[in-house]
Design brief:
Length: 486
């Protein structure tokens, strides 16, 4: 079929050359898609009347193809026309343009990489990401200078242009990148080198023993198992290291500890039962006499069990926890042994020994050893006229004041005693029955009572000053009236 078609095309060219522009009644029309007496079977690209350029016309019965080259510019806008063999025109878009060369070629985004950003690439007249489809599986891509730069991410290895695969972190230590006497470990996915225990140095180049003998260490250290360690580590448990000489420690047990300072020092005691009788208490592993330093100056100390009891010696006083001193009279009332509202004064007991004496304060009554209460009065003026202030209480002044058989009448806070009718005598001492013989009568005097510091009273004919009786006269009855001033 192809040979036949080619034959027909050649025949058509020859026929056209002889027939000229006249083609009988089968004239071509502009952009015709069929002809008279023919059936169209192919695409007509360009058809123009009166001998204009025709690229190709295919009919069932015959094919008439006329080539006139690029003379009539058969291509689209901005397209480039090139003649192929036999003068056949070929249209294409020029560099930097894209589109349909038969109709329109549009100018592209770029002509080369210079017209694109550094992270883009000019491809098919467009600035595109150069990483698209450039790298292999699992690879990272970074556009740099219009070029895709592919690399395997951390933890992966392989050809980034083909594929990256995950690596085993431990593989980074095989073979080991470290020096001799070292160990390689993976830390945060990174191989890390360190010296083996007992070795020092640079683990990347090689490690060595810290020491081989004491001289490799400082003066206070010693070489032990190829390491410099403090010489004081030679001391035993609980021991103290006093000093170091020639890389050797001088050890001793602390006070109160027993044992070998190079093996173990242990406490003198773990309980009271481990201590002797003169130091019966175990304090923090040391046997002690608890009286030591417990009491004040001059004080006595005795143990009650393990508890120290401090006291001042006989004839001494003070705070036994601070100081004891000789006893003085003033100390009788320190501390005050008396009750509330009472005062203490140094005194003596019945045997003559010095003792504190307690008295209620003025105006107070009660038991001075326990409690004193304020009295009802301090003077007669605070009591009614028929009562007297006795022992800070307002009481009847007649109580126990007159003689047996005498009568008493309280007047102006005083007891007025007199013998009853038919009796005579001293009403303060005794009243006796009067004699029957007549007695001279005296003119009666006015009776009055005068307060006097010593107790002065004049009643009828007698003057009483204290307990002294002065007679100034007598009553008509001959009886004496007496006033008890006490």
């Amino acid at each position: 079929m192809c040979s036949l078609q080619r034959f027909l095309e050649v025949a058509l060219i020859v026929g056209l050359a002889t027939l000229g522009a006249a083609a009988s009644d089968k004239k071509l029309e502009k952009r015709a898609t069929a002809c008279k007496g023919c059936s169209y079977t192919g695409r007509t690209y360009y058809t123009y009347p009166e001998g204009t350029t025709v690229e190709r016309i295919i009919y069932q019965d015959r094919v008439d193809t006329v080539y006139h080259g690029c003379n009539d510019n058969p291509c689209g806008v901005n397209a480039v026309c090139q003649e192929a063999s036999g003068g056949r025109p070929v249209c294409s878009c020029p560099p930097g343009f894209s589109g349909n060369p038969l109709t329109l070629c549009n100018r592209g985004e770029c002509l080369d990489n210079v017209e694109c950003r550094g992270d883009l690439q000019c491809k098919n007249s467009r600035c595109v990401n150069p990483c698209v489809g450039a790298c292999g599986a699992n690879a990272n891509c970074e556009p740099k200078n219009h070029v895709a730069v592919c690399s395997c991410p951390s933890g992966f290895k392989g050809d980034p242009l083909v594929a990256c695969h995950r690596i085993d972190p431990e593989e980074q230590c095989h073979p080991s990148p470290c020096g001799t006497n070292t160990k390689c470990e993976i830390v945060n996915s990174v191989p890390t080198c360190s010296c083996l225990h007992g070795y020092i140095g640079n683990p990347l180049t090689g490690c060595r023993h810290e020491c081989d003998h004491d001289g490799d260490c400082t003066a206070r250290d010693m070489c032990s198992n190829f390491k410099c360690v403090p010489a004081c580590q030679q001391c035993g448990t609980g021991a103290t290291c006093n000093s170091v000489a020639n890389h050797r420690a001088i050890c001793e047990c602390p006070k109160g500890y027993i044992g070998s300072p190079y093996t173990e020092c242990r406490p003198e005691c773990y309980g009271d039962s481990d201590c002797p009788s003169n130091r019966p208490a175990c304090f923090y592993g040391i046997c002690k006499n608890t009286c030591e330093g417990a009491c004040g100056i001059g004080a006595d100390c005795r143990l009650r069990g393990l508890t120290p009891v401090c006291s001042c010696p006989r004839d001494m006083t003070g705070d036994p926890f601070i100081r004891c001193r000789p006893f003085t009279k003033e100390d009788l009332c320190e501390p005050n042994p008396c009750g509330t509202n009472a005062i203490c004064i140094p005194g003596h007991d019945n045997t003559g020994r010095e003792r504190p004496v307690c008295n209620c304060l003025p105006g107070y009554t009660g038991n001075a050893l326990t409690h004193c209460l304020r009295g009802e009065c301090t003077s007669n003026s605070e009591c009614p006229g028929h009562k007297a202030c006795i022992n800070y209480q307002c009481v009847n002044p007649c109580i126990g004041k007159c003689a047996s058989g005498a009568t008493c009448e309280p007047k102006a806070h005083l007891a007025v005693c007199k013998c009853p009718p038919g009796y005579s005598g001293d009403a303060l001492i005794s009243c006796r029955q009067a004699r029957t013989q007549p007695v001279a009568k005296y003119t009666s005097c006015a009776a009055f009572i005068i307060n006097f510091p010593m107790g002065l009273a004049i009643v009828n004919r007698s003057l009483y000053l204290g307990k002294l009786k002065f007679y100034f006269g007598s009553s008509s009855s001959g009886e004496d009236e007496k006033v008890n001033l006490t």
